[in-house]
Amino acid sequence: MTERDYLNHWARLNSGVRIDWGESGVDPMSLVSRAQAELRRSSVNTRRHGVADFDEIWCVFDVDEHPNRSQAIFEARQSDVNVAVSNPCFELWLVLHVEDRAGPVHRSDIQRDATKLNLIRGKSVPDVAWESLEDGYEAAKRRARSLDQMHRDNESPSRSNPSTDVWRLVDRIRS
After folding, report:
1. What is each CA distance from 140 to 32, 79, 93, 99, in whole angstroms?
2. Which class for 27: exposed (0-12), middle (13-18), buried (19 or more C-beta within 10 A)?
3. In the prediction, which pLDDT does 50 show?
4. Is the CB of residue 93 less than 8 Å from the CB of residue 171?
5. In a 3-state reduction of DSSP, which class is residue 117?
6. Is residue 157 within 8 Å of residue 135, measured between CB atoms?
7. What is the rounded CA–CA span in Å between residue 30 and residue 17?
8. How many Cα atoms within 13 Å fall on the side-chain side of residue 108?
9. How far apart (Å, rounded) are the C-alpha atoms in residues 113 and 89?
10. Is 80 left (phi over 0), alpha (psi -120 to 50) or beta?
11. Residue 161: which of 98, 110, 94 has the closest Cα?
12. Using CA atoms, how far apart are residues 69 and 103, in angstroms rounded to an integer?
């Protein structure tokens, strides 16, 4: 899975960071509900043993056609679950490492572009992509933040297409 390849790569570069993956391929509301349950379980363990199971919990998801996405984001905010959302999909984040994007894009188009740029091969990140992804991280972050600013300036809803805040999670992994 592309997200796992990418995020695990950054964790390997930053020793001391461990990522434990839950289930993937579930809708955002189910993902947030599972994260909330994990927070409750960890809270009990912390009270019993005095040691936290983890520092942070994150849910990473694409926009897709999920009817409860906004509710999932709201629920996550209410319970200290962090979210990293890409619209239309995670591959947008990868493409931003090497080029700008400003207009709405369909998931299949951005995935095709990521493939042409050698950033993905199927559902994984090929070895040839890592230099571009590492070197282009700061540019991708700047581009993603510019997209957020573009949406604010246009008064379009937060997380409109195109947008991604995966950089927030990567910044935490890199710190």
Report:
1. 26, 29, 7, 8
2. middle
3. 63
4. no
5. coil
6. no
7. 25
8. 0
9. 12
10. left
11. 110
12. 22
Query: Using one digit for the tens of pLDDT, what is the confidence trace for 26-74?
Result: 899 999 999 999 898 887 666 666 667 788 999 999 987 777 888 999 9
- Predicted confidence at residue 53, as pLDDT, reads 74
Q: What span, in angstroms and rounded, lies between the C-alpha atoms of 148 and 157?
A: 10
Q: The tokens 């008064």 sit on which residue? A: 155
pLDDT score at 48 = 67
Q: What are the structure tokens assigned to 54, written together?
A: 């983890």
**Edge-to-edge order in the sheet of strand 163-164:** 58-62, 82-87, 163-164
E strands, the chain, are 58-62, 82-87, 163-164
- Here the tokens at position 49 are 């043993």
Place of tokens 């599972």: 34
Query: Cis bond leading into 88, ω under 30°?
Result: yes
The residues with which 87 forms a beta bridge, in sequence order, are 163
Strand-pair partners of 59: 83
Query: From CA 112, how far away is CA 83, in angstroms rounded?
Result: 25
Paired tokens of 117: 């740029």
Mind listing the pLDDT tens digit for each residue in 83-106? 999 999 999 999 999 999 999 999
Query: What distances in angstroms separate CA 64 from CA 67, 72, 149, one per listed residue?
Result: 9, 13, 22
Q: Which residue has the tokens 């199927």?
A: 122
